[in-house]
Amino acid sequence: MTVNFHPDRPLADGRTVAEHLAADGVYRTQYETGISNGGLGGDRPRWEQRMFGDSGSRPVYGALNLAGHPDGAAPRFGSCHLELRSHCLDRATFSLGDSHTEPEILGTAGTFAAVWEGLRAQVTRTGNALGVSASSADAWVAALGAPRTRAGRTLDDYVEAQVHDGLTLSVDVAAVVADPAFRGTPYEGHLRALGVPLRWHGGFRLPAGELPDALRGPEAAALGRTIAARYGEPVLDAAVLGRAARDGEHPQLVKYLWHVLVIMGRPA
């Protein structure tokens, strides 16, 4: 399982996510931090009531990286990710699709058959699931085990994982995998201070002049060009977008720009 996050986003006290992780040694839920790279509040309590009943569970959200994508199972939610240790599977629940879609197919590590069959059915319909293409469901299963060095770019196609009872970095995290945009920055130092191995994936970089109006709308593309001009950074990456977020740019448009980088960005 992987938990994607942006290390440079500020929390209420002005410190960033990476600083809090290094200082606290735990990964806090969005209810505790007050920030989310998906949806915070709104209908989420109703989704959780539907999925978990009256347990009062407030899980950490991640995704199951069955394909072994180096950018994590759900890069939509952040440029870096934590790789969780296998024992965390025992206290995780899974859904085929994001919670906000109110998925009907749910499971646990011990009752995963419905999710697995849902993935196979998706391959039969579309020829692809979890960013892996195949001519048949059996061929897809065989292809899952292949080593991967290229980004999966699975913006919307993932098995969501809800990890219950918290995450302690020293116990539950095997490694942190970071975007190379943070090499040589203070954020690299904060990530190294987590006390787990640090690796790098390929990253996502895109010249601002190549931002398409059609992908996430002309407002997002225009903001990207403005950010590039303001900072003298003609090529956008995770660190440049994080700087814009910290400077108070429209959070939804910055989020859209990150989606564009995941879809179209080239490795560093």
UniProtKB/TrEMBL annotation:
- InterPro entries associated with the record: DUF3626 (IPR022074)
Q: Could you name the domain of life of the organism this protein comes from? A: Bacteria
- Entry-linked Pfam families: DUF3626
Protein name, as recorded: DUF3626 domain-containing protein
> What is the originating organism of this protein?
Actinoplanes flavus
